[in-house]
């Protein structure tokens, strides 16, 4: 027997209903705010991520699916979406300021667990070009609109991580602090002290939490101009009644972020996050554009979503194929969805298939009746009556 690959996921039944609902809401929401959808390739050059994410990041050192093609080029399955969008923008729209949205699969080789898969779905939005504080706020506002459309109970957490240069000083101080306390840190965090110090602040391991709580705050190492920019963004959020809380330990795990960083949390699970990245194009040596983006973990939202999916499901049964074609044609003309048996078996077998497929209304095309499954009531078939029932 050939099993599915570890860390992948089959979406079916309720999960696929949730997935399609999320995708529909996402595409419609961001399109209405002027974001242009871009379908990105799953395969990218390895350098795109070693330069953008950082050679010492865990994603690059441990998690990327990489391979050489037949021409000897180093390629990877994309581990995240932002760098790909920035690559696309600077390759085809370098002198413009654009809004993009994307929805697709990403790949990271990590330990599979709940809400964490090796092949996962990500939805994202990016503003790239010449930006200001309003750009950051409008991205958060559109993200609020999307998550509210899913009727999720979520909270926004924000922070500023300053410029790349300011962060270097902070990381130096943080490194000394964690090095001094490494005997009390988890093994995973100790491994990050030298290579990816900021990521220790993201740890949820119980033994790390007290050390993290007492760690130096990044705000003590930021310039007045940086702090003022952050204050301006908070004032703008207040003015448009976007609720948020500040978390000065909140960082992004990728090297290219600067200044504003934020996360959306639902029932203790981070379902999305993002921030500003003004130097990414320069890091990649492909342009000078600024950027701000957000990415949502679609699989995490699927696991959070409680959809009210109740709607009438119509199933046709019949003794004769011609009678089924007649009724199905009438339903087609009225744009009413329905199901039919997978093969033309006995009428009783067809009825059992209807029940197995959770039909709520069964139309007997031979008898010209509608059976309401919940009440066992049978009424004469009439297109107007059917419209009332659905």
How would you explain this protein's 3D organization?
The chain is α+β, with helices and mostly antiparallel strands. It has two domains: 232 residues, BirA Bifunctional Protein, domain 2; 76 residues, 3-Layer(aba) Sandwich (Rossmann fold), CATH 3.40.50. The chain is 39% helix and 21% strand. The protein is built from 14 helices and 15 strands. An eight-stranded mixed β-sheet has the order 1-5-6-11-10-9-7-8, sandwiched between helices. Strands 12-13-14-15 form a four-stranded mixed β-sheet, sandwiched between helices. Strands 2-4-3 form a three-stranded antiparallel β-sheet. A hairpin with a 2-residue loop joins strand 9 and strand 10. Helix 1 runs antiparallel to helix 5 and helix 5 crosses helix 9. The protein starts with 13 loop residues before the first helix and ends with a helix. The mean pLDDT is 92.
């Amino acid at each position: 027997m050939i099993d599915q690959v570890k860390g992948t996921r089959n979406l079916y039944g309720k999960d696929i209903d949730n997935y399609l609902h999320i995708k529909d809401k996402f595409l419609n929401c961001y399109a209405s705010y002027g974001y242009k959808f871009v379908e990105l390739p799953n395969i990218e050059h390895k350098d795109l991520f070693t330069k953008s994410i950082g050679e010492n990041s865990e994603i690059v050192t441990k998690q990327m699916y990489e391979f050489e093609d037949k021409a000897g080029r180093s390629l990877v399955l994309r581990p995240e979406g932002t760098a790909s969008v920035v690559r696309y923008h600077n390759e085809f729209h370098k002198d413009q300021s654009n809004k993009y949205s994307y929805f697709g699969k990403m790949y990271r080789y990590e330990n599979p667990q709940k809400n964490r898969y090796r092949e996962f779905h990500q939805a994202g939005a990016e503003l790239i070009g010449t930006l200001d504080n309003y750009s950051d706020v409008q991205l958060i506002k559109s993200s609020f609109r999307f998550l509210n459309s899913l009727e999720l109970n979520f909270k926004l957490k924000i922070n500023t991580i300053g410029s790349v240069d300011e962060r270097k000083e902070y990381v130096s101080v943080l490194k000394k602090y964690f090095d001094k306390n490494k005997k009390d840190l988890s093994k995973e965090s100790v491994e990050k002290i030298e290579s990816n110090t900021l990521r220790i602040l993201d740890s949820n391991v119980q033994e790390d939490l007290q050390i993290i709580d007492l760690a130096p705050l990044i705000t003590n190492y930021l310039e007045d101009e940086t702090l003022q920019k952050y204050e301006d963004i908070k004032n703008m959020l207040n003015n448009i009644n976007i609720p948020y809380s500040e978390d000065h330990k909140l960082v992004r795990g990728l090297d290219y972020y600067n200044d504003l960083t934020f996360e959306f949390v639902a029932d203790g699970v981070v379902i999305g996050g993002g921030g500003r990245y003004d130097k990414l194009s320069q890091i990649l040596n492909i342009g000078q554009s600024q950027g701000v983006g957000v990415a949502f973990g679609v699989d995490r939202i699927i696991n959070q979503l409680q959809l009210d999916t109740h709607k009438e499901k119509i199933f046709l049964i019949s003794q004769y194929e011609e009678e089924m074609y007649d009724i199905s044609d009438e339903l087609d003309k009225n744009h009413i969805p329905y199901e039919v048996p997978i093969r033309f078996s006995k009428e009783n077998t067809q009825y059992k298939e209807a029940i197995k497929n959770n039909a709520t209304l069964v139309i007997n095309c031979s008898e010209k009746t509608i059976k309401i499954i919940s009440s066992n009531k049978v009424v004469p078939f009439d297109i107007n009556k059917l419209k009332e029932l659905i």
